[in-house]
Amino acid sequence: MSKSKKRVLLAPLNWGLGHVTRSVPLIQALERSGVEVVLASDGDALHLLRAEFPHLAAEALPSYKIRYAGANMVRNIAVQLPRILYAVRAEYSATAQLVRKYQLDGIISDNRYGCFSTDVPSVLLTHQLYLKVPTPGLEWMANGVLRLALRKFDQIWVPDIAEKNGSLSGELSHGEKTVHRAVSYIGPLSRMQPAREEDFSYDVAIVLSGPEPQRTVLEQKLLEQALEMPYNCILVQGKTAEKQHYFAADHVEVVSFLTAGDLQEVLNASRYVVCRSGYSSLMDLAVLGKKALLIPTPGQTEQEYLARHFAEENIFPCQQQDRIQLEAGLKLLESYNGLVPEHFSTNAFEPLLENWVAQL
Length: 360
Known about the structure:
Elements: E1 7-12, H1 18-32, E2 36-41, H2 43-52, E3 58-60, H3 73-102, E4 106-110, E5 122-125, H4 136-150, E6 155-158, E7 183-185, E8 202-207, H5 214-228, E9 233-236, E10 245-249, E11 252-255, H6 260-268, E12 270-275, H7 279-288, E13 291-294, H8 301-312, H9 326-332, H10 350-358
Parallel strand pairs: 1-2, 1-4, 2-3, 4-5, 5-6, 6-7, 8-9, 8-12, 9-11, 12-13
Antiparallel strand pairs: 10-11
Helix pairs in contact: 1-7
């Protein structure tokens, strides 16, 4: 395949939609710099990429097929580990084929640990340099495996500020040990832009994401309670396979998914947000300056840590999925501080990205 431009593969993990949404600014910046971008993922993430960038080539990668059937994260991952490792190996082989097919000059992988090549510069985008595991011995082992995986990549880009105090990821990316020879903190990544004026059409925007079956469990709980509240709500299901839009009641609007521009409009038009405590959601909240009720995915220790961290800092309240009291949680929001958008620059990554592209 002949080419006249540098060509970069960008491949976000299909684990909820957060990895895709935070990749959007990188894709847009690469295109502005004249790079031809090739996209790759699987499942809902691939559907959303194709909806956001229909003009770009988009390839399917092997699926990790991670499910959160229960609240014990260690057991969940242990049971699925053989399949995950097989998917990573298959992903590495698929990436090698894409390198040859598209004559790639570089790779940016968002948490896809098999998406790298020894033939072209490979970057891993991640906010997790240190894993949170309930048992100390297992945590030590898990982080040892993580360090080995990180070293397969030439560079690690962390979407957060370099200082631990005031950071969004806290201990997840600001530990004391050196995990890689080339770690760069590139600032938060978000496709969102705050509205200049507040004009609220909704009291609450409920934005769902994450692996099944927990996404559906949360949707059912929140929809049931939203129908009983006096608030004007919109519920974004986070299901990208098919576009649906309906009203569950006069005051409860439901939409399967929204592209970047539409979601930005909805969030800016909402007084409050209810969402998972996933890292990409937190970056969006920081940029928009929205107050939010956080509900971590049961058993996902990263989200549980982040929800607890922001609750302790009096930034966002949090509730557990099995004990949701939606109306009570919303009433708490005025007593929490939220995040200040001015503290976070969303274009800090651009000089690093430009330099990386120039060296390809």
